[in-house]
Design a protein that fits this description.
By secondary structure, this protein is mostly helical. The protein has 19 helices and no strands.
Length: about 500
Amino acid sequence: MNINTIEMNKARDAALAANRITKDILSPTHRTIKNSIWLIVHPLILNVISIFATAYIARTLGQGDYGKFIFAFAFVSMFTPITNLGLRAIVVREIAENKGKVCEFAGGIITLRIILSLIAIITIVVSSNMIGYPSYTKIIIYIASLQILFMAIGTTLMDVFQAFEKMEYVAYAQFVSGLILTILSIIVMAIGKRVVGLTMVYVFGSFLLFIISAYLIIKKMHTTPILKINFRFWKTSIYKGSPFFFPNLLSIFGDKIGIILLSSIAGEASVGIYAAGSILVDRLVVIPDSVCTAIFPTLSVVYKNSKEEAAQLVNKFFNYLFLLALPIAIGSTLLAGPIINLIYGAKFEQSVVILRILAWWIFFIFITSIQAWALGSIHQEKKGAKVRFFTVPFFVVMTLILAPMAKEKGVAIASLITSIISFILISYQIRKYLAINVLKNRVLLKIALANIVMAFFVFLLHRHNLFLSTTAGLISYVIMLIALRIIRTSDILLIKSLFFKNNANKL
């Protein structure tokens, strides 16, 4: 055997070994992308549809009644952590690590969350009366509080889907219930039922989500949760969930307290103006939430076997979310005026500046979420809790300072500043436990160039046609990502493999 042959055999063996390693590394990435697509595409389509339904609702109700509607659900949301107690993350992590106990574990959690939901509803009724809200507002709050019960059961069932990485079931349940909710919302507005009727429709949407999820888990997964009372199990689960509960409590409190404070400081019309801008960016939260939901069970398992592989997985999806978030923020800033005018009309012109500010809030939410969820999946959720313990009081103080001066704009600015601080603190924590490789300067310069080109086309065409400018910006951005090799061939093949089974085995 000559030297050339020996060298060729060595090269072949090295290539085969590298292929095996690559396959092992990409397997969790492959699953996470596939599950993320299931969780992003359907809700994103639904969100696009619902944006126009929301616009119709806002135009029909006006700033005042629309503000009442938003306020009622914001108030109710403040009490949803009572039904959670950090149990959702525990369901996903425990079942993902031991799928054999799904019936007993899920059933015990559902029973507990039903009891907690009833406690939450009673607390809402008592609190709204103690605060002394107007009678009409209290009626809306009472009806909206029923959503808590159905969401508690439905989300637990979806947590089971997540633990088994059956994200298509989550997507299906959310899409069907959301689509019916959207259609019914328009009908209710058309027949003049206004705020009370609309609130009842939203409660029915939660009930429908629960029914569809129950059908899927029983008929498709052949699993029936066993409802039972088990105080020892509940005590253990609550103890395990407590590190997740407090950051979740603070997160929901931080998200909704701005609206509650704004209502008391500036009135319900100001809430309506703020909501018109914030809802548009809130719809985009489905993207990081879906990616994080998909990666959570996968990362929990991967981290047990390889810390380095877990770090690679988090790093890869951080980069993906960064590539998505930056053009969204820039594009929303440039197109805020045409977007608000198209969707809400001239009456909501004040919402333009809200959208521009919150466009950068959503940017930091994208790149912070993946790191925060990663902490939970590697059993470092207490570190994330510490961050929330600082940032939520900070947000409240900033809101109390800025809202009296700038009303809805003050709340938006407070949200943006808080999100920046959250990103800095969470980034510091995650790097202590996983060797995350942030984007290098050279790559950042390439990304900046791609976004400059995208922004040029958006700005050039935004006065002519919103759809044309958005399409031109998107196409130019994708072309620049490929031309500058920011997106690698392996990334394209990986995504392609999700749609073409023949290529899946090549990874």
